[in-house]
Every structure is written in C-alpha cells, then in structure tokens.
C-alpha cells in the first residue's frame, strides 16, 4: 500500500469522526521518518479516541496492520504511526500548546479532499 493510499484512508477516517482543522504535510524528500504528517483536533478526549479508533478500523478494512499507537486513555494527544504516515490527534488545547506544525514548515501542505 502506498503512502498516498494510507493518507487517503486516514483523512477519510478523520472526516467521518468530524476531526477539526485537519492538516497534512508532504515530507517526501525532507524527512526520513515519514512521507506524510497529519494533525487534527478533537473537541474532547472521547472524540479524540473515536478518531483514533476510526483510523485503526480503516487500516484493518484496507488490510493494513503495520501501525503503532502512542498515548493513553487519558491522553490529550495520540500519535498513530502508520510507518509512511504519522497522525497526531490532539484536543484543541493540547494542539495549541505543542504547536507541532512548526516542525513541518519545510513540508508542502497537502490539499485535503474530505467527503
């Protein structure tokens, strides 16, 4: 499965669970860690975990099982490492506090098409 296909199912899952202010950055040729970095916000911890669960469900439906999740049930930030695509899901306050987007300023912003 290509990194673009992974990005597409990630964006679909985020959209299905109403993630907010979703941004994706194309880091091919810039980062050796991943091709794409994605960041989205959730209105609550419950929604944050619903988005993460939707991404994992989409991964399984697409027969993709090479992922790792960082964070706990009480976290305000979950990271899903899908190898070529890294997804960061934050509560709004945590996203503002950590401001990870500044790390990816060299990447090209990806225009996301949400259903």
Automatic annotation (TrEMBL):
One of its GO terms (biological process) is negative regulation of translation. It is found in: Cytoplasm. It comes from the Bacteria. The keyword DNA repair does not apply. Keywords: Cytoplasm, Repressor, Translation regulation. Gene3D superfamilies: Beta Polymerase, domain 2 (3.30.460.10). InterPro entries: Iojap/RsfS/C7orf30, NT_sf. Its main location: cytoplasm. Pfam families: RsfS. One of its GO terms (molecular function) is ribosomal large subunit binding. GO terms for cellular component: cytoplasm. Interacts with ribosomal protein uL14 (rplN). Belongs to the Iojap/RsfS family. Functions as a ribosomal silencing factor. Interacts with ribosomal protein uL14 (rplN), blocking formation of intersubunit bridge B8. Prevents association of the 30S and 50S ribosomal subunits and the formation of functional ribosomes, thus repressing translation. This is Ribosomal silencing factor RsfS. It comes from Lactobacillus pasteurii DSM 23907 = CRBIP 24.76.
């Amino acid at each position: 499965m290509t990194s673009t296909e992974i990005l597409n199912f990630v964006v679909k899952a985020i959209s299905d669970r109403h993630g907010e202010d979703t941004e994706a950055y194309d880091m091919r040729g810039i980062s050796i860690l991943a091709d794409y970095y994605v960041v989205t916000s959730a209105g609550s911890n419950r929604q944050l975990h619903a988005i993460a669960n939707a991404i994992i469900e989409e991964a399984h439906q697409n027969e993709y099982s090479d992922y790792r999740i960082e964070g706990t049930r009480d976290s305000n930030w979950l990271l899903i490492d899908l190898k070529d695509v890294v997804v960061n899901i934050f509560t709004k306050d945590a996203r503002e506090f950590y401001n990870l987007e500044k790390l990816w300023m060299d990447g090209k912003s990806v225009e996301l098409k949400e259903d």
